[in-house]
Task: inverse folding
């Protein structure tokens, strides 16, 4: 069998790949205290510029793309470029203009502060 025919057989037996990136949900941890909700999303390999965070009308959507730059011929490949995407319902009481985000070591931290009206209050009891 010539080299050319072997190449054609190999290509035919390969699974068909689409051009679109696979989408997976990042793992998250969520914590809540009286002042805010803190969300940690595991998004390894995603650059800050490739992450988007949208909070609107009780809906939080985070997404990011990890693109791997490769050169040379492929010898072994267990992971590839991927899109992370996850959507949550959040309380309407989130103070959206004060939402803050930071990325460190592949973990996105979102600080979702509660509006003053939503925070617990101690009610002072007056004497009658």
Result:
């Amino acid at each position: 069998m010539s080299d050319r025919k072997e190449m054609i057989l190999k290509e035919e037996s390969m699974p068909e790949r689409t051009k679109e990136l696979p989408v997976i949900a990042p793992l998250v941890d969520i914590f809540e205290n009286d002042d805010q909700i803190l969300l940690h999303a595991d998004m390894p390999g995603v650059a800050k510029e490739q992450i988007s965070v949208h909070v609107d009308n009780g809906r939080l959507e985070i997404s990011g793309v990890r693109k791997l730059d490769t050169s040379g011929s492929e010898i072994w490949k267990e992971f590839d470029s991927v899109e992370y995407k996850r959507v949550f319902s959040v309380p309407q009481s989130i103070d959206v203009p004060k939402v803050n985000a930071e990325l460190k070591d592949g973990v996105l931290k979102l600080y979702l502060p509660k509006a003053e009206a939503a925070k617990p209050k101690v009610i002072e009891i007056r004497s009658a």
